Amino acid sequence: MSEKVNAPEISVKNVSMVFSDSKGNPVQALKNVSIDIQKGEFISLLGPSGCGKSTLLRIVSDLLTPTSGEVTVCGKTPRETRLEQKFGIVFQNPVLLDWRTVRKNIRLPLEMMKVPKEEQASRIEQVLELVGLKEFGNSYPGQLSGGMQQRVGIARALAIQPDILLMDEPFSALDEFTREKLNDDVLSIWRKTNKTVLFVTHNISESVYMSDRICVLSPHPGRLSAIVDVNLPRPRVPDMRGTPEFAALVEKVRNSFEGI
Q1: CB–CB of 55/63 below 8 Å?
Q2: With CB atoms 3.0 to 4.6 Å apart as the test, which of 106, 159, 206, 218 could cross-link to 225 if both were Cys?
Q3: CB atoms inside a 10 Å sphere around CB 134
Q4: Coil, strand, or helix at residue 139?
């Protein structure tokens, strides 16, 4: 008897996206992209600028509507899933309000969702603990480093208790040391929460270190060139970056790009 295959949590079928440039000419950002993502997977969308990886993330999250193709999330449309508050989104810039403390920044989406105040407080303390900022809840964004600000952004996304965490190049503006520390922090959070993570990056080593699978996108037009399985053991540890197995995967991913 064959094993039952679970339906994917996120299904992208033949998705294309065409924008108009400043002169009204069509520009194809994505062409016939298809990806299935299972519940609990950590998936990276990897590629250079202009390959459509952030566009694809925005389509999944209902921030953009594709020109053609179909996306389902949890068996529903992206819009239905968004309205059910099942997405937590982390952008490159955490967009914190300077006049609100860390706690009050995390509280903002909970206020909008009309979560009862007692539950708000409980959730805020839980996510502060999860991202290692318990002692900074009363600090203001201007008193935090860039890495700490990004952790607040992650905590705010987790506070709504989403099923799916969407991360759009969240560490690209950070120095290498901070970036690698946050890689480990996010993997720790992922292990503890069992979220499905869709992670956009242009850093090959980062994608290999973090992912179960890497969706390699090539530009002009944005298209899926390869899906690379990352068979490194978990939990991932920093020493893995120096192993021959890691280097071989980095090389395999690098060789998967087309037209660059």
Answers
A1: no
A2: 218
A3: 11
A4: coil
Q: Please, what's the largest Cα pairwise distance for the chain?
A: 60
The token duo for 128 is: 């502060």
**Closest to 157 in 3D by CA, of 130, 177, 176:** 130
Q: Buried b vs exposed e over 223-253: b needs ≥16 C-beta within 10 Å?
A: bbbbebebebeeebeeeeeeeeebeebbebb
| 220 within 8 A of 48, measured Cβ to Cβ | no
Buried b (16+ CB within 10 A) or exposed e, 147-171: bbbbbbbbbbbbbbbbbbbbbbbbb
Go through 199-218 and write b for each residue having 16 or more CB atoms within 10 A of its CB, e for each that does not.
bbbbbbbbbbbbbbbbbbbb
- CA 21 vs. chain centroid, Å, equals 27
Structure-token match 């201007």, residue found: 142
**Mean pLDDT in consecutive groups of 10 residues from the start of the chain, 260 residues:** 70 96 89 97 94 95 96 96 95 93 97 94 96 96 95 96 96 90 94 95 96 95 95 96 97 86
Positive or negative torsion for Cα 82, 87, 92, 95: positive
Cα 229 vs. chain centroid, distance in angstroms?
18
Residue 215: both structure tokens together: 């969706």
* pTM flag (> 0.90): yes
